[in-house]
Amino acid sequence: MKHLTIAALVLTGMVGAAAAATVTNGDGQAVLLKVTEGSQQSELAVGPGQTVEFCASGCFVTMPNGDREALTGSEQVTISGGKATVN
Questions:
Q1: Domain boundaries, the chain
Q2: Distances (CA, A) of 9 to 3, 40, 73, 83
C-alpha cells in the first residue's frame, strides 16, 4: 500500500508539471511578457534561446507586440522574429 501511495504522489507531481505552458524565445534578444493569473499581474523576462515554464493553472499573457492570449496552461508559445505563435 505504501508503494501505491508513493506512485500516486509521483504521478500527481508529473501531471502538475506537464500542465504548465512554456515559452521559448528563438530571437537574439530578451522579450518581456505580461502574465495575469487571477488578480495577480507579473512580468516574465525570457532571454535569447531560453525556454521557461509558466501559467500552470490558466492565465492571460500579453505578448511583446501587444497581442493578448488566454492560456489554459498546456500551450507552447514560440517567439520568433518578434512575433509569438501559440500551439
A1: 20-86
A2: 10, 28, 21, 38
Give, in words, the CATH class of 20-86.
Answer: mainly beta
Taking the model in full, what pTM does it have? 0.76
pLDDT tens, 20-56? 999 999 999 999 999 999 999 999 999 999 999 999 9
> In the structure grid, which three cell numbers stand for residue 72, read together?
489554459
> Model confidence over 59-83: pLDDT tens digits?
999 998 899 999 999 999 999 998 9
Instruction: Tell me the C-alpha to C-alpha distance, in Å, between residue 78 and each of 7, 36, 85.
Output: 33, 18, 5
